[in-house]
Design brief:
By secondary structure, the chain is of the alpha/beta class. 43% of the residues lie in helices and 17% in strands. The protein is built from eleven helices and eight strands. Helix 10 runs parallel beside helix 11. The longest helix is centred in the last third of the chain and has 18 residues. Bound molecules: phosphoenolpyruvate (PEP).
Amino acid sequence: MEVGLIRKKVIIANWKMNKILAEAEEFLQEFLPLIQDVDQVEMAICPPFTCLDRMQQKLVDTKVFLGGQNLFYEKGGAFTGEIAADMLKDTGCKYVLIGHSERRHILAEDDDVIKRKLQVAIEAGLIPILCVGETLAERESKQAIPIVKAQLASLQGIKPPIIIAYEPVWAIGTGINASADDAQEMCAIIRQELKAIYDESTAQATIILYGGSVKEENLAGFLNMPDLDGALVGGASLNPLSLANLVRIGENIG
Ligand code: PEP
């Protein structure tokens, strides 16, 4: 099956609901010179919608891509406050986050909604980054694997390319990261599940990220694992030097 992506190191920044335009511009002014010579790592920033257009202009002729943090599952019409996949594409996005735990848990998005979002993203030519992960209670009750497998079922009938981000909910924004071994164990299971949903070559070619309190001290441990291709980074991506250092760690590992 054609997956349309080359498996390489990937660092995606999720700025969440942070930064006004001036702050985003200031960030890029500092960040871009620091990563100018990077060529082994795919880099993308998912800023708030309000920053996309201006950032697109600043990122022309750079190696940094843009992603949306969310989209709506309809293509257009009377959906006040929502953003369509085509609008993200039009404003320069390559990627879109779908099913982030904050949307699953704070905004009650379920797997059906997530599946519809995956579908419109693919139709618009965006690469969805499907976020999956268990809560602490689910991990403690030994439900982590079935929960993640159930979340991956949203991929049935969705044509690759897709990226998967394994983000244990208890690790997001808490400063408590999963161990590299635990992340590897789950990412190997995710790859097995991709094989069941698609086929062996798609499973092997799919980029799988870890997310959850990634920082300079722990990133290399994740990137050295066989089934982890990169990271989805929240808090540590808000500072240009910190994000550049994470990218450099990826570059050194290659
Ligand atoms: C995230 O927002 O996807 C995330 C992983 O956040 P943090 O790095 O802050 O844990």
